[in-house]
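Protein record

Derive tokens from sequence
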Amino acid sequence: MVRGGEEIRATVLGKLDFENGENRALLLYTMRLFRDAVEFAHNLLKKGLSKNQIVKLVTSRVLNNKWYSMSAYVRAKLYEEQQFLKLRKPQLYSVGSSDEGGNRNIKLVSSSIVEIKNPSANGRHRWISCKVGFGRKHIPVIRRVIGEGISYGAGISLKDGKFFLYVNVPVEIYAEEMRNEIRSNAKPKYFAGFDLNSDRINMVIVDGRGEIRDVKSEHFPEVTSHGFPKEKAKTIRQHALAKLVKYAREHGAKYFVIEILKRTKTKTMSKTANRKISKFALREYLNQMRILAKKIDGTLIEVDPAYTSIDAIPLAKKLGIDRHTASAYLIALRGLMLLKNHKNI
């Protein structure tokens, strides 16, 4: 799935286990260097330097590794709107490499072993090897990424004294592997959250623990163009929503979660047209969802939309997904929490 020329990614998390204290200390030192590199790159961004200039300066002054320096620039861009940047925790990140089919600096040797490059000022870099433990359901995803030589971004974070590896994989591969597990569930019990817009619908399926099980979306930007027939637009939206609801039901969804919205988002140059399209699309969605939920013996949950769009932005950056998918994920979680407050599931 590609958005604006950039492939959408899902994140798989694993816990690192070191065989000796020396490797742990080396990794922590590298993470501190990388944190400094991100702050330095952010400062250079604010001064108006170009990408190539920043990468060159970070490489020569902080990290003697161009790939890590490029990754530091990518991380600094996430904080570009901030005037000043002071990161509290050490971190490490390495962008994926399509040329090498994986990652240059944080390499998954297997689903249980990862090698991390420790840069040196004299150019004699060494590799840190350590064990990594992924959740059982995520191991097929990691094995597929390694086996097919797929490019992946990877990073390391520190929390409560423990090191965690996060791997950004193509969302299609993640979803396909998760579907295999979803299909094995005979009794529907999952939550499907829907982010409803006049030109697209994003859906995320989560289980009772709030973990993502599947991701799917339908796009129809043509319906918001000037002069597009209203009835034809209605038919397209209805077909898209019905398709997603059917898919969710077939893949284990019992609860269908939507926001109690006043209007949906639109993309035309006319404010009047936006308002009309938005209200019209919203009525369509709400009425159809209520009907579809009854037809498939599902449960419709309507949740408060407060702060969903705002909260979705940092979550999207963290998980490596687009903001509409992040919104659908948050909506599903709110439905889950709302139901949990009333009964055990």
